[in-house]
Design a protein that fits this description.
The protein has twelve helices and twelve strands. Helix 3 packs parallel to helix 4 and helix 6 crosses helix 8. The protein is globular, with a radius of gyration of 19 Å. 40% of the residues lie in helices and 20% in strands. Helix 5 links the parallel strand 5 and strand 6. It has a seven-stranded parallel β-sheet, sandwiched between helices. A three-stranded mixed β-sheet has the order 7-9-11. The chain has a two-stranded parallel sheet with strand order 8-12.
Length: 297
């Protein structure tokens, strides 16, 4: 199948492109600049020029494919509403091209916002007043009524691994190195789900091959890793003390990350595993930290 992938040169996208190609798909990777184009070509995919804020380029690219894996997103927390609007316009463009074809449209979302203090599951419906991106996921699930094999992959907030993760754990490592201590909030028993980027890439491929229309899937390998364990692993690798800080000091220590690192947000992938036969096999979050993939530079 000819599959257009946005975010093809990115952290999850590059792993997904490799999986799709290895499974026999012809991948077209959307590239917004020369650097992205070079990375996509090196993966063995066909380069298609375009960007998420150029809808004409997206429309042309989508007409060259039989399905779309939409992983590109602007993760600027200072412009969440604008980023979600750009994302919605891109999704609507892809939907217009794929309507009535039965082709797959997979988009990325997250398990954040599903539940607090209990394990989130695939059938959960995120609160409508949550992150503006969540409304886009709900829209995509409804596209099955337009003859599109639509699916939403909710990624764990920590997608870790070797090779240049710039996500939450990388930020925690940098803060620990700069402050001279690896901290957690309160008793540190709040949990974060996690998944290795290579396992996440395989899930994307399995979803394209097998998932029925209207599927909500969880890219979660570990249901919940305690914040205290994450801080401890970073402390051991960086050779800095590990400490608990009270909630009223979290903002000054972690800045914008404090609202996430203090949350208890475990999530299950039991249904996803049963539906797709997905079984994560790559290193865990704590194993990747111990292996030195988060130097805190």
């Amino acid at each position: 199948m000819r599959i257009l992938v946005t975010g093809a040169s990115g952290w999850i996208g590059s792993a997904s492109v490799t999986e799709l190609i290895d499974a026999g798909h012809h991948v077209l990777g959307l590239a917004r600049n020369d650097e992205a184009a070079a990375k996509i070509a090196a993966l063995g995919a066909e380069v298609v020029r375009g960007s998420l804020d150029n809808l004409d380029s997206l429309r042309v690219a989508a007409t060259m494919a039989e399905g779309v894996v939409h992983l590109g997103y602007n993760h600027d927390f200072s412009q969440m509403a604008a980023a979600a609007q750009t994302d919605r316009a891109a999704i609507e463009t892809f939907a217009d091209v794929l309507t009535g074809t039965g082709g797959p449209l997979l988009i990325a979302s997250g398990t954040l916002g599903l539940a607090t203090g209990r394990v989130g599951i695939e059938s959960d419906t995120p609160a409508p007043d949550g992150h503006p991106r969540l409304a886009n996921a709900a829209y995509v699930l409804g596209l099955r009524e337009r003859g599109i094999r639509s699916m939403v992959v909710r990624f764990a907030p920590t997608v870790h691994g070797a090779g240049g993760d710039h996500g939450f754990v990388a930020v925690l490592a940098r803060i620990a190195r700069q402050s001279g201590a690896s901290a957690y909030i309160g008793d540190g028993q709040n949990r974060w789900p996690a998944v290795n980027r290579l396992d996440a890439g395989k899930l994307v491929r399995l979803a394209i091959d097998k998932a029925p229309a209207g599927s909500a899937l969880h890219a979660v390998a570990e249901e919940g890793v305690a914040a205290r364990e994450i801080a401890g692993a970073l402390g051991r690798f960086l050779n800095v003390p590990v400490e608990s800080i009270p909630a009223d000091q979290a903002q000054s220590r972690f800045d914008w990350l404090s609202m996430f690192f203090g949350a208890d947000i475990p999530a299950s992938s039991a249904h996803t595993r049963s539906l797709l036969g997905w079984e994560p096999v790559h290193p865990t979050l704590l194993e990747d930290i111990a292996a030195g993939h988060y130097p805190g530079q």
